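My main concern about presentation is that the manuscript never shows what a single data entry looks like. The format is easy to grasp once an entry is in front of the reader. For illustration, here is how one protein appears when written out as sequence plus structure tokens:
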Amino acid sequence: MVSIPSFPSPPATGIESGETPTSEVVIPPEPYIPPPPQFFRPGSIINGPGPIGPNCVYIPPPPKISPPSVPLCSGFLRPQGRPSTENPGGPWYSQLYPTQQPGPIIPPPSPTLQTGGGRVGAGWGHHDVLHGGIPNYPQPLPRPALARPVYRILVGKMFDSYERTLVPNQSITVDKEFGVIFDVRSSTGPPYSQPGTIPGSEKVEIIDLKRLTVVPGFVDAHVHLFLHPYSETSWVDQLTKESLAERIARATVHARRTLLAGFTTVRDLGTEGAFDADLGLRKAMAGKDPIVHGPRYYCASRAIVSTGSYGPKSSVNPSSEGIEGVTGAEVADGVDECVRVVRRQVGAGADWIKIYGDYRIRSRMSDVSPLSSTSDLLLFTDKEVKAMVETAHALGVKVAVHAQGWEAIEQAMRCYADTIEHGTQMGYSHAHLYSRAPYCEPESLRREQIWVPTLAVFHTTLSDASSQRWTEVKQSFAKALESGDDRIACGGDTGAFAHGKNALELVLMRQLGAKWNQVLAWATLGGWKCVRDVKWDNIRVEGEHEENPLRVFDKLGYLAQEREVPFGAIRKGWAADLVGIEGDIEGDPAAFEKAVTEGVKFVMKGGRLYKTDGKPVVEAFV
């Protein structure tokens, strides 16, 4: 029970309801000035003295307003909330009208009373307390806030990854604290002003990139941060002769080089013998002040293979899996075991599940049959693949399938894997026939299947650039382009060749016939559509993502940058992943190559500067 102090009563000249007043009133000798509003906790019951009835909630009028001409509490209240002269002695149970403060109260144009369930208040023109009535006091004017510190990035040309065009003379406003894009507009017009803020409180840092072409941060959809070039150390020796500590240390360096090359997001499709180290690395690279600076990191932990199919393989014990406990992937056989392994990996924290659809399972035949040893054969049955895909999807995780030959490609399509890795014979398979076929999942659960060609790994690891295998890869890619299928993302299988050289995949795509704007779209928006979580596949994110770009940060802080904000396009509400490129990105393949490999002069990831004027920002790595 809350008590309020006594105060002078207003004069009584009549009663709007026509009923007899319940109490006498005293006419003050001087003009009546009501006390200032008093605010009470919602739900409080106030025992008002004097003319205020017991158990009523008193909401005084604004200060310095002419007194009303009727007494307080002129009517009686039923518990149901209607004015009446019946039951005059009954208790009046009330709830406090939820008044907002602070802020000026502006008188309404007319003293109307609005009805509402279970709340009590006084109309403007009188002090009658009506149970169930809600006064139409207007809401207080919102108090202007200080403007948030922002970057205003002035751009000569900006790549629109949706329209696949270059837009000249743009101004991009980025929130400094949370790294989200506030606004994108022409730099020739008036600058962006944050709504509801105090004029003149803007703290704007101008970044002049008028001489550069700005694109969304690149996405490498197929990397292995725990590997380094096979030209330096063979795959087997990396797994069996390098300690886990050494491989983790190398991975941190690889992450930094990747980010400075303009790749602000990567998907790591297997630690290749480094166990679950990618999960720890992901944690170290997350947040506003990470331990390790690198790209936004999606990981698949351990790939899944069938017994006897993968390496490293012992020369002393050919039938054993791995060497000294080190295996390049996790073994699973049969539907039940495949389901168990998927569940375990998802429970461990994997963003993706990677399955080897085919591989060189007969590699030990090389001494007598080189052809057999290099043939890619199916590792799982349709039932096994289907079980893994459906289990992963049910748990909200996507599936990538390593598929070289047409049989594995079509199997992955039939079982509706989310991405096809390598797809060497994609151009020659009949996979397109299955793109709309009713195989594993109902129509409502299907997702767009994306091809990640990994041209770069074939280009760098094949001993002879003119070899039959490389020729087959090139012809397959060209044939896929002719079909008009645009569901492609850029991923080079980086790790087999040097990290920081990720743009090689873009260069090869351009050289093999893709248009410059196709390649940029695949490397940005295509990357986002490829690596994003399952939940995003069921949300339309075309255009602006969020009317209030900071809404998601209110709960999660900067950590929302990791999985709760889209990237791959320069639009309001999207992550401020921006790369500034010097050179003729629209030119021929040679000019394009120079631009994306040597021309990256500016890198921003999540609103944080990592590279300006072609040099790393030292403070960002401290």
